[in-house]
Specification:
Helix content of chain B: 40-55%
CATH topology of one domain in chain C: MetI-like fold
Membrane topology (chain A): Multi-pass membrane protein
Largest sheet of chain B: 5 strands, mixed
Shape of chain B: globular
Order of helices and strands of chain B: HHEEEHEHEHEEEEHEHEHEEEHHHHHH
Number of helices of chain B: 14
CATH class of one domain in chain C: Mainly Alpha
CATH superfamily of one domain in chain C: MetI-like
Structural class of chain B: alpha/beta
Strand order of the largest sheet of chain B: 10-9-11-8-12
CATH superfamily of the largest domain in chain B: Periplasmic binding protein-like II
Order of helices and strands of chain C: HHHHHEEEHHEEHHHHH
CATH class of the largest domain in chain B: Alpha Beta
Strand content of chain B: 15-25%
Largest interface: A-C, 62 and 62 residues
Keywords (chain A): Cell membrane, Membrane, Transmembrane, Transmembrane helix, Transport
Organism (chain A): Pelagivirga sediminicola
Distance between the termini of chain C: 29 Å
Oligomer: heterotrimer
Chains: A mainly alpha (432), B alpha/beta (339), C mainly alpha (406)
Strand order of the largest sheet of chain C: 1-2-5
Radius of gyration of chain B: 21 Å
Shape of chain C: globular
CATH architecture of the largest domain in chain B: 3-Layer(aba) Sandwich
CATH architecture of one domain in chain C: Orthogonal Bundle
Pfam families (chain A): BPD_transp_1 (PF00528)
Subcellular location (chain A): Cell inner membrane; Cell membrane
Strand content of chain C: under 5%
Number of helices of chain C: 12
Chain lengths: 432, 339, 406
Amino acid sequence: MSDTHAQSVAFVRDTAIPAAPPPARQRGAIRWMRENLFSTWVNALLTIAALVAIFFILRGILPWLFNGVWTTPSLTACREVLQGKVGGCFSVLTERWNQLLFGFEYPRDQYWRPATAFVLLFAAAAPVMFFNLPRRLLIITALYPFVAYYLIWGGTVLTPIVALLGFVAGYLAYAGLVRSSFATGFFAGIAAAALTWWIGGMIVSAIAPARPWLVHVPSRELGGFMLNMILGVTCLCLSIPLGVLLALGRQSRMPLIKGMSVVFIEFIRGVPLITLLFVANVVLAYFLPPGTSFDLILRVIIMITIFAAAYIAEVVRGGLAALPKGQYEAGDSLGLDYAQAMRLIILPQALKISIPGIVNIAVGLFKDTTLVSVISMFDLIGMIRGPILAASEWKGIYWELFGFAALLFFVVCYGISQYSQWLERQLSTGHR
Amino acid sequence: MKKSVILGALALAGVSAGAAAAGTLDDVKARGKLNCGVVTGLVGFGAPDANGEWQGFDVSMCRAVAAAVLGDPNAVQFVPTTGKTRFTALSSGEIDLLARNTTWTFSRDVDLKFEFIGVNYYDGQGFMVPKALNVSSAKDLDGATICVQTGTTTELNLADYFRKNNISYEPVPIETNAEGQQQYLAGACDAYTTDMSGLASTRATFEAPGEHVLLPEIISKEPLAPLVRHGDNEWADVVRWTLNALIAAEEAGITSANIGELSAQAGDAPEINRILGTEGDLGEMLGLDNEWAKRAIMAGGNYGEIFEKNIGEASPIGLARGLNAQWTDGGLLYAPPFR
Amino acid sequence: MTTMTDPEKGGFHVSQLLSDTRYRAYTFQAIALIALIVAFAYLGANLVSNLRAAGLDISFKFLGSEAGYGVEQALIPYTSQSSNWQAAKVGILNTLLVAVLGCAMATVFGVIAGVLRLSNNWIVSRIMAAYVEAFRNVPVLIWILIIYAAVTNAFPVARDYLGEDPERNMMFGVMAFTNRGVYVPMPVWNAGAAVVLAVFVLSLIAIALYRRHVTKTLFSSGRILPTFWPTLALLIVPTVLAYFIMGRPIGFDAPDTLSNRFNIQGGVQISASFIALWFALSIYTGAFIAENVRAGIQAVSSGQTEAAAALGLRPRRIMKLVVLPQALRVIIPPLISQYLNLTKNSSLAIAVGYSDITATLGGITLNKTGRAIECVLLIMLFYLAISLAISVVMNIYNNSVKLKER
């Protein structure tokens, strides 16, 4: 072939040119920068502005961070060490870490107890959070509340055991009678549990040892970040079942039940949490029988729980509404009654759809636990605004303390939201 | 954790059912602990120290009552209260006694139905300003920005004072004393107003206390008094006479140093004997035993000792006795006779 | 539920109340009703006996009595002799003020961050991601306190501006940034100002009418009329003309640094607590709105953009005519619930001493009068009313944009 053109064309290439590397402007870091940072002049301006902003922020923060003083007993001593240089007085964290984490009244020699409960929390949460772990591990989760209660509050070990026995008795009664009817099983379960607690309570108060293995710590003495964790975890665990019930109530065909659920949900969602906490703190006492006084922490738990439950109810309602009508009809056509259809067909699917929403509520709930500082409870923020800033040694120190608080919350909340995104990816398979 | 709540509720329901009928004194004895409402943090009057122990002038009152009633100055559950929550905490029974620099006023006594059991500190509201401002009188503060704690009588006195003198001011309401100091030191307000004792205690913790002055005007009467619920006179008597015992002990010269000696046997002074229970049976009349006052005084010393230790001139707060001296020294403290 | 129940034969048995699906619903509702009544009766009885024991009563008379305290920021006339009710109204207006301004600024933050987070500029999208994560994952109370401390400690003190020979000069001679707040000039309305204002409002209406006309022309004849310049002209020209014709009726009262030795007088003072609360709420809520905006834009499938491009529309028009209308349908419902959250979060004003409804009625008035039940009840009613009003707006919007299928 090449012969035919030999006269007309001066030169014909008969071998392929070896692939040349792309020009310098089109490769490696330069290309990446051209595409991602300087693709248009607007982008270039934005990039430069962003770099300048980052530079100024780092210039402010880095010396403060690296010149930080970690070992002085007071702010005055810290300022002497710094001698006018820029630097953080992080010694407030090293000196008061125990108050920030556990509050100022929790017995110092007992710090290992909440710390253990915190570590165990991961073991207990894992089976719930990761579905591919063996289902048998859920028993750890079920036992955790009792162990954690015992560790944090202490007192006689019989109290959590009786509480556990009550739940076991309730479950046995339910399992025995649920075949005949869900309602029968449900009420029998509640009755059995209540009976066990009543009898057990009497036994415990009769034979409780005067000196238990773990010293009893009253709720008043809980504080610091531990209090935020306790409120967050407890209220979340309690509000999910309540929220599901409210969502079912709102979807119910019984007008009265539906109306009550709607009014309750809308009322709670319409007012700020802080007013509910005021109710817990200053009004609730008037609605209880004369002479009753129950723990502020318990009242706060109730209020945060119903607050979160109303929001969870809306998320679950969304999940219920998202299910195709065919699923409800399938339940009916199989001859399942309401409780069975809900338990076996509807709720497992609806809850699965709702999980990301519930996790969002959980993050919000955890952040909202800081509001208890407004009603004179010493959570992390309460500790900072109260005893630590009022102490003469640490008067006038803000950034280190609030930065530390922000960091703690960020770590927990960011962790939860990353988990939520991971979960969403896991669950999305097969549904799109 | 969630089960603990249910259990707690059950247990509490049981407890409260039994406790509802009895009086406060019996409640406290049955409980073995005194629930005492205190301030959330005011150095010198009531604040947890670095070890988490509550310390202060008001706190000592709680400890004295606990010692008198229960025999143990540490049998106190301190309940921190804010300006907003203190009265509800008391009227709902959450606390048995409120010792939180609370001003005795007509409406609190009559309308809110509380029983003030006697003044433990005579105070008055004043102003603190930076020396650099060259202000010598509160009347010069026309147009100034003033930091004031919300939810106290301070706020009302301030409004009244400026109105009376026909000058204007801008209030900066603040929630806690710590925030007030932050605002004041940053110059966000020109003056800081609260009770003189609070100002002194605040100034004492500044880096350079000498750069701030307390103005001479005292614009209000602030008799600070512990209070209990209206209508339970036995309990009110116990608290009232515990306070009186502390005051009378100073007058009679009973101190924590010599109390062991004085109470060993009846001495020459009949009043001391009656206070310490070596003579007569005043304690039994109160529903306690005869050594009640001895224990109360031993808890933290007599009134003077408590004052000196927490807020007196030797302490960082550095308050002079002033109006709070014994009547024999020209002050207002005057305990009724023990007989 | 099931419709498989056999037709009823024979008489009615009591056991059917539980076992027969036709009656069971009534049984449950009756139980629920009784439980509800019993619960309310129990709480009510407790309330009555507690109040009687304490010698108190429920009464709203305290609202008429003198408040006795001063507030930092009042939009309506208020002195310490005003009534508690007037103080409550001051608080309500302050809550609404911070809520409305907060919503506006949060929307600005949120839209900017949401759009930039989708930008193909790597560094900008990362910064926006960092902003969103940092603010979403830290409690708003901490942000309020941090920003308040920043304003207090980083801004200059007011004294620097005062006197004949100040250490600092006001920006443009009329604005002062101090740690007590920002002082800006206050407009003074003289005679004739109403005319200028009326002209301005009329020109706004004219703009709306013109824009509608433009859309109509586009849809009916396909002609594209210019919008930007006519809008700008309509906005500015008539108002400026009216201003000069009426003889400059609107003046400005600049902050005065000479007449008082403590404070800047005159002008408008935007207090530090308001700035801290406003900024913290809007930057916090803005992070959430950014996520809504991002989700809304991503929810419009790329096929829509491609189809519009295939029809020959230019990028700006694709955004305006195709993407935005569809994205807004996704964005607006969560946006409104974020507005609601912001309004409710504004009750945290109490942490920085801003005089909102929670601080006046629920704070000082409650402390002073001890009327806890009445005050908390009124506050709850106020927030409920706001949230119901916003819900109504949201429902109206949802119905108006509902996809009309089939």
